[in-house]
Amino acid sequence: MLGPFNRGGRRKPMGEINVVPFIDVMLVLLVIFMITAPMLTQGVQVDLPQVSSEPIEDIENQEPIIATVDKEGRFYLSIGGEDQDPISLEQIADRVIILLERRPGTQVLVKGHREVGYGAVVSLMSTLQTAGVSNVGLISEPPPEER
Description:
alpha/beta
């Protein structure tokens, strides 16, 4: 005699899908993406200015640190409006570290000539980030008023 599940050697087809292997694969992919996603993001973190931005207020009347890139790609560091000679990125990092140790919370601003290459400004901002600057402001001029 044949059993109730065995009709001539044929099995009754199942009407349900086994989703356990699918869930296992999805969990493995989720873990892989959670581990690799932070490694994929690179770059300099910058608080970008808004279109209708307001002037930056002085914090306790401290002069900001201004890092500048001129048209030829030379770097300058200005504290309190003092003009200085061109310096290297390493010297900028060293001086910014010393200045931020003396006056924590000092604003750091970047000023780049409109014709300077994007790479020079990014190199300067990356140097400032490695020197411990968490927020960098970008200096710009308002567009001329049309008449």
